[in-house]
TrEMBL record, chain A:
Molecular-function GO terms, alphabetical: ATP binding; magnesium ion binding; phenylalanine-tRNA ligase activity; tRNA binding
GO cellular component terms attached to this protein's record: cytoplasm
Assembly and binders: Tetramer of two alpha and two beta subunits.
Location(s), subcellular: Cytoplasm
Entry protein name: Phenylalanine--tRNA ligase alpha subunit
Source organism, top-level taxon: Archaea
Taxon lineage: Archaea, Methanobacteriati, Methanobacteriota, Stenosarchaea group, Halobacteria
Enzyme Commission number(s): 6.1.1.20
This protein's encoding gene: pheS
Automatic annotation (TrEMBL), chain B:
Cofactor(s) listed: Mg(2+)
GO cellular component terms, A-Z: phenylalanine-tRNA ligase complex
Family to which this protein belongs: Belongs to the phenylalanyl-tRNA synthetase beta subunit family. Type 2 subfamily.
Assigned EC number: 6.1.1.20
Assembly: Tetramer of two alpha and two beta subunits.
Protein name: Phenylalanine--tRNA ligase beta subunit
Amino acid sequence: MELPQRELAVLEAASADEPTPVAELASATGEKPETVTGAAFDLEERGLVTVSEDTVADVELTEEGERYHRMGLPEIRLYETALGAGADEESVSMGEVLGAADLDGPEVDIALSNYARKGYGEIESGDLSANPDADPDTDEEAAALDAVADGEPIDEDVREALERRDLLVVHERTIRSVTLTDDGVDALMAGISATEAVGQLTPEMLASGEWADVAFADYNVEADAETPSSGKEHVLRATAERVTDVLVGMGFEEMEGPHADSEFWINDALFMPQDHPARTHWDQFALSEPSAVDELPDDLLERVESAHREGVGDDGDGYHSPWTEEMARGVDLRGHTTSLSMRYLSGEAVGDLEPPQRYFSVEKVYRNDTLDATHLLEFFQIEGWVMAEDLSVRDLMGTFTEFYSQFGIENVRFKPHYNPYTEPSFELFGTHPRTGEVIEIGNSGLFRPEVLEPLGVECDVMAWGLALERLLMLTHGFEDIRDVHGTLADIDFLRNTEVVY
Amino acid sequence: MPVVDVDPDELRELTGHEEKGDDELKDDLFGIGLEYEGTSEDGEFQLEFAPDRLDRLSVEGVARSLRYQYGDASGVYVPDTNDAEWTIEVADSVPDERPCVTGAIVRGVDLSGGALESLIQLQEKLHATMGRERTKGAIGIHDLTMVKGGSLDPDTTDAEASNSITYRGIDPDGDTFVALDDDAERTPADVLTEHPTGQTYADLLDDYERYPAIYDDLGLFSFPPVINGRRTEVTENSRNLLVELTGTDQWTIDRMCNIICYALDARGGTIEDVTVSYPDTDVPKPDLETDEKVVTHERIESTLGIDLTEEEVLDLLGRAGLGAESEVWGEQGIDYVVEIPPYRTDVLHPVDIVDDVGRAYGFNDLVPRYPDVSTVGGRTDRSRLERAVRETLVGLGHQDLLNFHLTNEDENYDRMRLDPGSDVVGGGEPATIAEPYSEDYTIVRTWALPSLMALLENNTHRAYPQDVAEVGFAAERDDSNTGVAERRTVAGAVVRHDASYEDAKARLQVLARDFDVELATPETSHPTFIDGRVASVAIDGEDVGVIGEVHPEVLVEHDLEVPVAAFELRLDALAE
């Protein structure tokens, strides 16, 4: 058998009869202790030795312990002074004895509290008596202090007592010891020669050709290496990218537009009545600075106001709600990205659109809410719409069924729903890919004529929306949304999440 | 969205379908848009639904919808009403802020066994929805036997003419009454400060000089929109009721009144008109007129994506609780003239009728199909650039971050040693939230580096290096139409025990190389960074960002014990 030199040296220095500590092996072989440890583990892998671990406690005097070791424990000094004052015959005044014992400050309390405990005497109403039978020479604590100072072992109970008195500190350390196995003994008997093993392959070896003459030390190829510091795309961003891939593949083009926008584009164009409960400050993020836009598109504004007041079509009705331009000019952080859909459908974003069209966005929206495990103040909304002649509810169902199936969500159900801006409207429900639970996965519908006519759209438009975070939590089973999104994120969580593709 | 508690046993009784199991009922409810949320302690279904069908805010309304859905009822039902015996006189003193009033008398109703509870729930839910928390419309329901009709004309002794009550405005301290759940005479003003319900609704009357009040011959008995008087309190034994509503919009309170009347009709009540008497005209209420809209056969078929016969459509309309007559014209044209019952508040356009037909048909019985529409997909230039920059930074070992856009002034400026309104990167004035819930999130961030620092602060217990980066959003105020200049920003930080300016610069150089732009870093000063170790980021000659070693004061402020070298620049500077 051949072994690297350092392993062979350790093997030869070790014994089969009793464990040899690494430190001893190090001095026997002349290697560093860490080299010996490494070699020992390698030998253990080969089955030639076993490595055992013992925890030993190194005991050391504290500064205070050191002082008492020199001067004597305060209670013993007190006792000896008390004897000198005749307290073994008759109680004496405590103050007198303390003065004579040269105790002051915290030592007074220490002396008094241990005095009675150890049976050196009694303290009663300011008088102190001494027990004539007490013997300071048998004081275990004093003896232990001396023993520690001399590097000798001490009793466990006494050690704990002195630790509590802060007179000792204990440092624990691990001592590894090596014992030959039967295989190790056999191998030594059979004879082992040292190999000229090389650890690291170097550029010099390659250049000189030396590599051809050396043996490479075997590595433990099963051992884990240290994980390098690396970057990773954020898991939620990766999910957004995945959604984008799917939608682009389904023929959708991406939209973009302002986060801070007028209520006109966010709500009025969507046929949301101005006294709708969701339009209060408590649900949306109205801005105080700036508080209003300078201009809105005049013609469109007029048509939208008319839809709100009078409805559209021959026998359409409007809302019985107040409507002011002032409210339409208010600036909000958008509560949904349907504001982008409105800008695109109106021609404001990229000019007039002819059917057919498909558009989407995966962008931030904002809700005035309280941050908790399932609610964020800002999240990503997936928004998509299809514009074509004669779209039906079945087309809507087919589109969304296809989209969700890309994420493993099957059996999509459509619950008839109400939105001010779509009719018919549906909440989408799907089956959780892992738990099998039925959960809400989106909101959809065909835009109402009161939305489309003012925008100048003459064909059908179906639209839907969904929170990206919800999709991620569904597909990955995350439980606290704050882990996933925002400045409260745990960087290790981000480092360790499975990649999304 | 509103949640209504409905007793399933009562639902079975009112629909006449005792055989329906709980699960079957839940499925049927889902089909008409009511989502089962759970069961209350009393064993009632908690049903969540969207606020369009406010007539379903009570068990009576839900039962009516199910009976239509089951085919047990069809077409429009309008209860018969008896002639008016009572008059609501509208005085000139009625507050300008609350001019509208309506009402009804309901006789012979049975409120025992849960019906009263259901009525109270209906009233509360209507207040919360259509009534806009009682501002737009508020309902008062009274035991009619406790109301004593006064006379319009003090000289008349005619029994009919003497049944009159008055809606008027009074001085806030102009009279006293005993409110519900109270035992002392108080003025309306005192009710607002001393009575719990009064305190809740006091805001509604902030701008009122005179308070709304309803009087009978014995005096003040209702203080809308706040609280009724104790005298006319409705109990399970009440048989005859006076319903009165006041508000800011006549249509709204008339519909709320109708929904109440239909619910009481389902409890065996007989509706009786009241006359609302203005100085110049008398109007009978409740207004149970039906509405009419025309929808074409073609629109129904094209929206639902299925073929239907005329008979099928008529049947479905009937099962939706709508009346319908068909008119055939030309070769295949069919119009349906649809009659809409007076409890519906949501039918604004023929599409709403198409939706009703779809619900009656059962939307989940429709077979999905992928639309035969061809379009070409694609991303915006910006989002492609964002992705490419993010990938480059990740390749350099930066952990990609997604931080909140919302923050507060302390995080965004103070803790970065920055003053709002200073002419450096991040120093612009912020877009500011008007009424934030949380003081942690009051502005939109003007730059992304504070978000990176906040994340690092939250992760001091994690292993270093923590090189991080974000390609994200920032905004500051400007003179544009919206008053906000929005931009995408690229922020990166090298965070390790030996991080230095050079590390950050090296990364910027890679970005500049990969995106083929010319990078220069002329010296500058910025309070977030150490003087002499900070530079402007100039791309192709334009100043687009900042790079430097973060000032120790900022590091200590964020509990960091490692140096941070960072940069931030506009994304569009890297665009072609």
